[in-house]
Amino acid sequence: MMQPLLRSQLKTVTFAFIAFFIAVVLLMYPEQAFRSSIRGLSIWWDVVFPALLPFFITAEMMMGFGVVHFMGILLEPLMRPLFRVPGAGGFVMAVGLISGNPMGAKLTSRLREQGLISREEGERLVSFTSTAGPLFIFGAVAVGFFESTSVGIILALAHYLGAIAVGFLMRFHEPKAPPSKPPGKKAGFILLRALRAMHRARLQDGRTLGQLIGQAVTSAVQTLLLIGGFIMMFSVLTQLVNYVGVTTLFIKGIAWILEFFSFPSSFAEAIMAGVFEITLGSQLASATSPAIPLVLKLTIVSLVIGFNGLSIHAQVASMISRTDIRYAPYFIARILHAAISSILTILLFPLLQKHLHHLPTAVSVFQPVQTPLWTGLEWTSMSILFLSGIFILRERIRQGSAS
């Protein structure tokens, strides 16, 4: 068995060689590096920054206002039995599903830093909350690459059902690890108990509204700058690695595996690109020969989106590095998600294809969607805000009477 010192020395040499190789390639092909860096910057500035900044700021403010504690009480009966994570994980899952990567990892790290989850619970939580956002699936992939909203519905269902399946499977991760302390079982209506917990958390936070907004904006911009650096770096690496032909052997291996599973070998290049960056991998998969059945293209796209790409892996690893949450469970979960979502795509395609042909070929993801579900969510949000106002007003009156 390899000695720890020797293993550490080999790791140092390997990392140093990789860094040296990248530096040499950058010096040899500066024009290609510059162009791919500009491409990554364009993706970050035009899509990622405006799409994620409001979510990052809002999520930080919601945590300061105690919304995590509110959802922790409310979702405890669901999240702990199903996924073996506290109810506060429901907040991470909801925001992660809406905003996409790497929001799930960022919020999981924040919960771990605040001591609301254990290390093992954080590893379970980040494994199924690091998903692609609907803006990417519907806007970039479905409408941008396939010019079909029907495709977006199939991909989204496969992706999010796959995430839930991964979350259920990851509940068996570290089965003997002690869980975090559940909230005490108190008498009373669960919604009122959740509102009290939210109010106490806001008071314990102690920051004024101005301080909270300022710190939320600062934290959001810093995180997005980090994400932008990763996107640009991996855009350069993807282009240069393909340009110098390093991936040729890997593409041949992927092609052999695809042929074994009766898939066209022409998908090999798309999968290889998707290993690094999901946008490029999805685009190449959609642009393969028109003779290839659509279901096969969607299966490969689901595989690429489920794996997330090494660019997002690096972002997640960077965010959880501030805690004791380990990266390996997340990596294993990405492989599971890629496999499950691909299988679900094959199963869902014949069931949904005949029911979705009447949908428009394109839809603006920036327009508000008026559906019964959306209307119900609006009324639910308004009701919660109204009840919260009544509860806070009652507490103020009670405090005034006591003084």
From TrEMBL:
Keyword flag Oxidoreductase: no
Keywords: Membrane, Transmembrane, Transmembrane helix
Pfam families membership: Gate
Domain Nucleoside transporter/FeoB GTPase Gate: 47-145
Transmembrane segments: 12-29, 41-65, 85-104, 125-146, 152-172, 291-310, 331-352, 372-393
Protein's recorded name: Sporulation integral membrane protein YlbJ
Organism from which the protein derives: Laceyella putida
